[in-house]
Amino acid sequence: MGIVIPVPEPMASELRRARASFGDPMASVIPAHITLVTTTPAPDWESVLEHVRAVTSAQAPFTVTLRGAASFRPVTPVVYVQVEDGFSECSQLHKELQSGPLDHENTYPYHPHVTVAHDVSEASMDNAVETLRDYSASFTVDRIGVFEHDPHGLWVLREEMVLRGQRRG
Predict the structure, then answer these.
(1) Are 68 and 116 in contact (CB under 8 A)?
(2) Which neighbouring-strand residues pair with 145?
(3) Which of 164, 151, 146, 169 lies closest to 40, judged by CA?
(4) Which of 16, 57, 80, 153 is most buried (CB neighbours < 10 A)?
(5) SS3 letters for the chain?
(6) Is 87 helix (H, G, I), strand (E, B) or coil?
(7) Antiparallel, parallel or unpaired: β 62-71 and 78-83
(8) Could you say which DSSP state residue 134 is in?
(9) Is residue 14 within a helix (H) or strand (E), and if so which, with residue range?
(10) Which residues contact 92 (CB under 8 A, 6 or more apart)?
(11) What are the angstrom distances between the C-alpha of 56 and each of 7, 99, 114, 166?
């Protein structure tokens, strides 16, 4: 399973077109998103869903601002749009979600982002960083998606959960 914040329209389509223009073969099948919990085994879906519902019921909606592009190179061949506003909220959600039935070790430290190029040539990654250097967009995060990895390797939305906590201040 995986848990993500979907990037809404029209930003999702803008980022999908950009990803495709950089030659990323996954552009047409992976919608723009911010991963909260990466691929994790979920042997007991009901306990996982109950856990995620508890976390989302306490989390207030928040604003995410995506600004500029960066890369995880040389560690991994990924270019991403940076999460500026909302970084701490995404990090806190990740920490809370990746506990209990979803507790596991990550290969890399958590860093909220939207992937825009993965496993493409160095020239395409350089182009992605340059092209999206001035990218900026904001949206309100008021829901997350819980996805299941099906036997064909596709991600299928299992449940969308609304953030129900109260805003502070």
Answers:
(1) no
(2) 4, 160
(3) 146
(4) 80
(5) CEEEEECCCCHHHHHHHHHHHCCCCCCCCCCCEEEEECCCCCCCHHHHHHHHHHHHHHCCCEEEEEEEEEECCCCCCEEEEEECCCHHHHHHHHHHHCCHHHCCCCCCCCCCEEEEEECCCHHHHHHHHHHCCCCEEEEEECEEEEEEECCCCCEEEEEEEECCCCCCC
(6) helix
(7) antiparallel
(8) T
(9) helix 11-21
(10) none
(11) 17, 13, 21, 11
Q: How many residues are listed for the chain in this entry?
A: 169
Q: Per-residue pLDDT for the chain (169 aa), expressed as one digit of tens each?
A: 899 999 999 999 999 999 999 999 999 988 999 999 988 888 788 999 999 999 999 999 999 999 999 999 999 999 999 999 999 999 999 999 999 999 888 888 999 999 999 989 999 999 999 999 999 999 999 999 999 888 877 788 999 999 988 765 5
One-letter amino acid at 92 equals Q
21: tokens are 């223009």
